[in-house]
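1st attempt posting a full record on here, be nice pls
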Amino acid sequence: MPEGTEIDAIVARIAELKLEHRDLNDVIDRLAAAPILDQLQLQRLKKRKLLVKDQIAMLERQLTPDIPA
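the predicted structure (as tokens):
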């Protein structure tokens, strides 16, 4: 389990990533609603969004204490 300042840094990074994830979602929605779709850009944004989601999950797992079996 990470120590105090490390936990604060992880929590701050999670907040940044969640904001980025939400922003990417907004951009993807607007781009998908546009009359002329840029499929390549849309795919790149979706891929980035999934990467951000995976990073959030990894950091959240670091905050969860290990439970002995």
